[in-house]
Amino acid sequence: MDSASPQGFIFGTASGGFKTPGRRDLALVVSEVPAATAGFFTSNLFKAAPVLAGMERIRERRTGRAILVNTGQANACTGEEGLANCRETLALIASALHLEEGEILPASTGVIGQHLLMDRWRAAVPELIRDLGRSSLKDVAEAIMTTDAFPKYAVERVALSGGEIILAGAAKGAGMICPNMATTLSLVLSDAAAAAGIWRRMLARAVRRTFNRVTVDGDTSTNDTLYGLANGASRVPVRGKAEERLVEEALDRLLGKLAYMLVQDGEGASKVLHIRVRGAAGARDAEKAARTVGHSQLVKTAMYGQDANWGRIVAALGRSGAAFSPAEVRVSLCGVELFRNERPVSPEADALLAKPLQERDLELDIVLGGGPGEYRLLASDLGHEYVDVNAGYRS
Amino acid sequence: MDSASPQGFIFGTASGGFKTPGRRDLALVVSEVPAATAGFFTSNLFKAAPVLAGMERIRERRTGRAILVNTGQANACTGEEGLANCRETLALIASALHLEEGEILPASTGVIGQHLLMDRWRAAVPELIRDLGRSSLKDVAEAIMTTDAFPKYAVERVALSGGEIILAGAAKGAGMICPNMATTLSLVLSDAAAAAGIWRRMLARAVRRTFNRVTVDGDTSTNDTLYGLANGASRVPVRGKAEERLVEEALDRLLGKLAYMLVQDGEGASKVLHIRVRGAAGARDAEKAARTVGHSQLVKTAMYGQDANWGRIVAALGRSGAAFSPAEVRVSLCGVELFRNERPVSPEADALLAKPLQERDLELDIVLGGGPGEYRLLASDLGHEYVDVNAGYRS
């Protein structure tokens, strides 16, 4: 694991005691100079207070100085009071660091429907400020965890004509312990010198190709947020389309690693299903097919049960709404062709797949026809651990 | 349980030994006179051979004489040979009863991807014919079971100006033992005298209001079929719109009972969630909201865990694609209001719901706003039994 960090960022973590006493549940990322910002938010109509405040900041300013994250309380479904509390936490940091409140981007995750414990915030902020420069990106990745089994962070380096830039990211996974909902929070930091317009465009495409192509249970939370800061501290500019493409490819790799870790660590997940749909009439058909298969409870339980159940895959394709001719469909799992010409290929498939299906990563290749449409999706399986995690009574 | 049967129908059952030796897995319903037919089929692009043959018959003829059902083999994903086998089974019956092959409607359920065992069919048909008139509708309901825990049948009587008519129905539930898929098969019989046009129209509306509003896991099989026969043996006609409405209301009750039994007996289901969405901008928005909640793994596991987890319900509404204003949303579970004005209503809700959530039937009422759109959906929960049933290796 590359422990490099983009230049010009400092990190702080602290314990606010929001849920588990003593655990570091506050993280602060500060850029030494104003950084180009980017923000991507949940499409859920119920948006948490920090999502509403973050959207406003991204809309109104093109640069920012800091990201403030807490776990333990989602500050979702908390109304006007929640929004006022969110603003107060930002004001506390702004005042300590002599920044404007609008330069700080907020994110929260945790129990929904409860108000932020403002007394604990006021007590914890001085500790958080004191810690600035002492924590690492890994500490931040640990502080933003809720029920994640391991911290998720990654680094990419890109050589451009002006020198090397570094991209780093941290994410928290799908913690679905009641009454939390699947919430992903991610930070992407770079010392590249890029205008906000370019930075946002590159990141938007990378998010579409990575984070928007994973599913644990198809539920979208009130709090999903991804922030990006590019502060130019490397003094290396992203020059022209060719270099933009290089950075975008590195963002794809970086976010791809984080997205994979989210599915791998999805609560109750034992498998990562790599679904690839090709030959669809269009990209939209390919996506429909991939998502229907990736969300099918019957396919997910079959993968959990290590069962090469092509019938369920085919049935999910058939109800997906994607337009295709059944006669052209081919399905392969872990490299073994299971279905072609509307029929199972071979009675030996089960024997051939017994061993590959024991692996964590399963490749599912689906060809719908001869069209250009293609889509990839990472999906988790569905087993007893999922039920255990999600049927437990809230505590 | 009303054991009345519509006049002019006789029933036969037999053991073909298709899967479990000795078990009655063949059922035949014969109308003594030509009956108006109706047929409703899976929307899955992969349609089983009996679905293709049944669709053809419903399209080309308005009357029919018999319905032939087998369990143990779905005859799905079996190509041209599967279709030829299906036709041969119909020809065997037609020849024995001096009917035309086209007058018999086929339905199959069971293991997909395997061909019908034609030798066993040929051996079993004489037994099936001999049994005609000896079996009851209940025997038919038992013969078409796969992994259903109990036979599903119901009867309704309707007093019309010309006398009484009887409606009777039998259904098999969502048997999802690998590699079967959720397959529903249903028969609706009546001795009413109704033209095929009216019969089909009445039944179509009743199916839309009942069978199309249940979900166990959101998967649609290759074999879903509902056939209706109205043979006029009561000599009681359905006169005018008012009587049509009476019959349609009885069909709603009949199919409603069968649909409820399907969810109640959904494999691995311990709860029946009665979802009612009101106040949506339109019926389409209400349906989107109801289906997203009913299919949400997080909502289903919470119901299994007897957890009044309004956050998951609200989050599902927010991602459903239904248009609404979050500030107007209200959510009640088992008569206890949980969410209003974008906030939880009361900290006592959990205590109030502890007992009601132990019941099998849970009422979930959702108000999206002040619009006219309304939708009802029955959904099952998701627990360990579902995983056990669906992750087990095929045998």
Summarize the structure in words.
Two copies of one chain form a homodimer. With 395 residues, chain A is an alpha+beta fold. Helices cover 34% and strands 26% of the residues of chain A. Chain A folds into two domains: 9-264, 4-Layer Sandwich (L-amino peptidase D-ALA esterase/amidase), CATH 3.60.70.12; 272-391, Ubiquitin-like (UB roll) (Roll), CATH 3.10.20. In chain A, strands 1, 2, 3, 4, 5, 6, 7 and 9 form an eight-stranded mixed β-sheet that branches. Chain A has helices spanning 49-60, 79-97, 118-131, 137-143, 196-209, 240-264, 283-295, 297-304, 310-318, 349-353, 384-391; strands at 9-14, 26-41, 63-70, 104-108, 152-160, 163-172, 185-190, 214-215, 225-230, 272-280, 330-333, 336-340, 343-344, 361-367, 373-380. The two termini of chain A are 36 Å apart. At the A-B interface, helix 8, helix 9, strand 13 and helix 11 of A face helix 8, helix 9, strand 13 and helix 11 of B.
Provide a short characterization of the protein structure.
2 copies of one chain form a homodimer. Chain A has 395 residues and is of the alpha+beta class. Chain A contains 11 helices and 15 strands.
Using brief descriptors, characterize the structure shown.
395 residues, alpha+beta, L-amino peptidase D-ALA esterase/amidase, Ubiquitin-like (UB roll), eight-stranded mixed sheet, 34% helix
